[in-house]
Specification:
The chain is an alpha+beta fold. It is 47% helix and 22% strand. The chain has 3 helices and 4 strands, in the order αβββαβα. The radius of gyration is 23 Å and the shape is rod-shaped.
Length: 125
């Protein structure tokens, strides 16, 4: 039972780590003059920042424009940023993630049952 618990916990951890790679997030782009749109019950990726005129992304965690209001507008103009972006997964993606994880666990269950059947069959013969 302990081995099964550790195995399930390990698979859950791996699924959590790679979960954001299964579906491309939605990107919300707003001009620097308006607040970032509320995402409600969506799952934020934590990736947000600024876009320049060429569309290159600059993460807010790189230290760019850590202000708000008029100071933010001036900083964005000084740095050459034209908009802000925010990446998130809308609530409608919830079931897609659930079905992917269900398929992974069902596939592992089928593989374990087949392995157990093969081992038991070999012992009986």
């Amino acid at each position: 039972m302990g081995v099964a618990l550790v195995g399930i916990a390990g698979v859950r951890l791996l699924l959590h780590v790679f979960r954001s790679d299964w579906i491309a997030p939605t990107v919300s782009i707003t001009p620097g003059t308006t607040p970032r749109a509320a995402i409600g019950s969506a799952w934020s990726t934590g990736q947000f920042g600024y876009l320049d005129a060429a569309g290159r992304e600059y993460s807010v965690f790189q230290g760019y424009c850590q202000t708000s209001g008029e100071a933010l507008k001036r900083c964005m103009a000084d740095e050459g940023f034209v908009a802000r972006y925010h990446k998130f997964y809308p609530s409608s993606d919830f079931w897609v993630f659930q079905w992917i994880e269900t398929a992974v666990f069902l596939g592992l269950a089928v593989a374990l049952v087949a392995a157990a059947y093969g081992m038991l069959r070999r012992r009986l013969v």
